[in-house]
């Protein structure tokens, strides 16, 4: 029995390669590859921008932050900013609690959309895209050459 979330989540192929493929399972040959390019910092709150500046270089160096992951990473920064602001306001009257509650409830709702489109590194292992071929190859191609 079970359902789609049963068991451990698959690891990104790049991480499996770095670890020497400990499970010895064949990696997904059709795993989508995010477009190359420089990751640009999106518009966000000031505190989330500080967190982006702190975490983005680390994630980029590890190869887990790509152009395809900017929106999900922005959400992570906004949620972390809310947690840090709430932590700083522990002794003050609770004014941030409502916003923090909304974001905490909203994050799990949005997350499946990121996974659906392969916008986080783990979900790319579950997605298979067909290889692009210019034209069909004939079984007689190369016989006369």
Indicate the overall shape: elongated
Q: pLDDT under 50 segments (min length 5)?
A: none
Q: What is the succession of H and E elements?
A: HHHH
* DSSP helical segment count: 4
The CA-CA distance between the termini, in Å, is 54 Å
* Biggest pleated sheet: none
Radius of gyration, whole Å: 21 Å
Helix content: 40-55%
Structure, explained:
The protein is mainly alpha-helical and 145 residues long. The protein has a domain at 44-125. It has four helices and no strands. It has helices spanning 13-18, 46-62, 70-88, 97-116. It is elongated. The termini are far apart. The model has no long low-confidence stretch (mean pLDDT 75).
Structural features:
mainly alpha; 145 residues
């Amino acid at each position: 029995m079970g359902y789609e979330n049963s068991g451990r989540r698959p690891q990104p192929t790049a991480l499996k390669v770095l670890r020497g493929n400990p499970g010895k399972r064949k990696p997904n040959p059709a795993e989508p590859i995010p477009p190359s390019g420089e990751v640009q910092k999106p518009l966000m709150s000031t505190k989330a921008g500080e967190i982006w500046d702190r975490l983005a270089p680390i994630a980029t160096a590890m190869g887990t932050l790509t152009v395809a992951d900017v929106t999900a990473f922005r959400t992570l920064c906004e949620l972390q900013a809310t947690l840090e602001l709430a932590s700083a306001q522990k002794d003050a009257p609770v004014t941030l609690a409502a916003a923090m509650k909304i974001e905490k409830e909203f994050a799990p709702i949005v997350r499946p959309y990121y996974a659906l489109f392969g916008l986080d590194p783990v979900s790319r292992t579950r997605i298979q895209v067909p290889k692009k071929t210019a034209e069909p190859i004939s079984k007689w191609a190369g016989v006369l050459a």
